[in-house]
Amino acid sequence: MLDSIWLLLLLPLAAISGWFAARQDQRIKLRKCGADIPSDYFKGLNLLLNEQPDKAIEVFIKVLEVDTETVETHLMLGNLFRRRGEIERATRIHQNLIARPKLDRYQRSQALFELAQDYLKAGLLDRAENLLLEYAEVEKDPEPALRQLLYIYQQEKEWDQAIATAKRLARASGESTDEMTAHFLCEQAEEEIGKGHVEQASVLLKKALARDPSSVRSNILRGQIAHDTGDCDKAIQYWKKIETQDRRYIPEVLDQLAECFKETDNQAGWFELLNSTLKKDRAIPVMLKLAEEIESQQGATAAREFVIEELRQQPSLHGLSRMIHLSAIQASGQSKSDLETLQAMIERVLTSRKTYLCEHCGFRGKAMHWQCPGCKRWNTVKPVWEGSEE
Ligand SMILES: [Zn+2]
Fold it and tell me: How far away, in angstroms, is 364 Cα from ligand 1 center?
């Protein structure tokens, strides 16, 4: 069976046969015209028919002398191999092309770019990076190369280079790269926090917010630094900003917020924040947190009444589970154990549900990712609770 690669290799054979036929018509002797080309082709065909494809390819490539006429064929051949997952063969063809001194500037940079694709596919990021840098330099920042360089720098966590490349990409494409740049700065800030360099981290987070004022991650991290250094008032101030940036992320800091309000002995402020947030969109985690607070402050009966009222406004499995839990506290004997069993069953259903969803590619996961592991976009993974999914 001949697939596209073999058809491509045999194409020049057809051309050569036609050329020879024409030559014969003119009664010019074959020897004078370099008749060894077709014999090599037949040798290749023979190897192919004897199921020795590797040797056949070697012969064909040798025959298909690289010159300005056949560069396109070599490029196509290399790409076909890469698409079929035969990276070594693709690499060999592209390397062979680059080694030729006859190539013009455009052909050479095309070959460079294709070889970079081979290396990328083979996971040889350093080699791909070097070629892409050369290609980007020669071709004056073409978008595809810059995007691939960005991919490499993110994979390798080379944030300085990622920031510089994002800037070049913004210039070349006209699209804003501020959102991703803010994340790169947050990544650097997290590294500094890990080393205990909170001042350097704070500077980076300020820069991130200047780039992208809606950067929730910057405020989460700023709050974290303030909390870790014992400044709970400041931490609350930063985390409260998330409400105006993107309320969906509030659940990410609810536990730390509760801690800070307790440490500053500001229960009234905490209740006020929970109530005002709940009024805005009845977020389930906020409702559950408020139920927890009411239970510890006023007891199970008051908490149960609150949850029932909330369930009337927005039915949810989480709310139901909490309501059953609160009812079980007040029950005894068989009904208590029945309620506990029921609640355990509902909890099992809820645990099996994923709570983070990428709005772009539909990736689901149990942990928060600022960069989607599926589509590699930033800021597309959102916390999802039942009822807020559609
Ligand atoms: Zn995604």
Answer: 9
Q: How far is the CA of 339 from the centre of ligand 1 (A)?
A: 39
- What is d(CA 115, CA 89) in angstroms, rounded to the nearest whole number? 11
CA of residue 373 to ligand 1 center, whole Å: 7
Under 8 Å between Cβ of 310 and 320: no
103 φ, ψ (degrees, to nearest 5): -65, 145
Q: Do the beta carbons of residue 184 and residue 166 sit within 8 Å?
A: yes
Identify the CA nearest to 220 among candidates 200, 196, 197, 193. 193
**For the domain 182-265, what is the CATH code?**
1.25.40.10
Distance 113 CA to ligand 1 centre (A): 27
Residues around ion ligand 1, judged by CB within 5 A, are 358, 360-361, 363, 372, 374-375
One of 1.10.600.10, 1.20.1420.30, 1.10.238.10, 1.25.40.10 is the CATH number of 4-173, namely 1.25.40.10
Q: How far is the CA of 118 from the centre of ligand 1 (A)?
A: 25
Domain boundaries, the chain: 4-173, 182-265, 282-352, 354-390
Return the pLDDT at 163.
98
Query: Which stretches of the chain drop beneath a pLDDT of 70?
Result: 1-38, 40-42, 44-45, 48-49, 51, 53, 60, 62-69, 354, 386-390
Query: What is the CA(212)–ligand 1 centre distance, in A?
Result: 20
pLDDT for 248: 87
